[in-house]
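Technical note accompanying the year-one report. For the benefit of new consortium partners, we illustrate the data format agreed upon in the data management plan: each record pairs a sequence with a structure-token string. No post-processing was applied to the example shown here.
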Amino acid sequence: MFRSFRPTISPTLFPSVFLRVQSQMSSDHAQPDRHHRQRILPEIGDVGQESLRHAHAAIIGCGALGTHLADILCRAGVGWLTIIDRDIVEHTNLQRQILFTDDHANRGVPKAEAAKEALIAIDPNCNVRAIVDDLNANNIDDLLPLPTGEGRGEGSSPSPSGRRWQREALT
């Protein structure tokens, strides 16, 4: 739609019109940029949207709050989501857990897997890792390894005080 548009207005006279039309295109020019409205906000801009694209969020529990949070983060452009939930979708979940469908409940799909399916349908560029398990102090290091390298110094160990706090919260 925007691809064939050739502005007849001089970009030097009306730069905001020209820039708005040009910035609505994604970098591959295949479709309009889904995050255009966020990019034009001075508080986010291109730099902030790129930060979101490289960000990772873990959501523990895919109930009413978890499904809403996952939906919002995916739509905002967060590039990596990890969903951890041990439960399956039931019909009693459907009125408040927005990522799930009647089909998920009929098939008894694990919530983490159903959320992954829904989130990828919302934004195929979002990398979703579904973990069907109970997060606890014994498996937190395996399920949610802390990053090393970037922001910590190459090869450094994760913060022991941060992980200790997480383990205490899980007990």
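Partners are asked to follow this layout when depositing records. Strands lie at 56-60, 80-84, 127-131.
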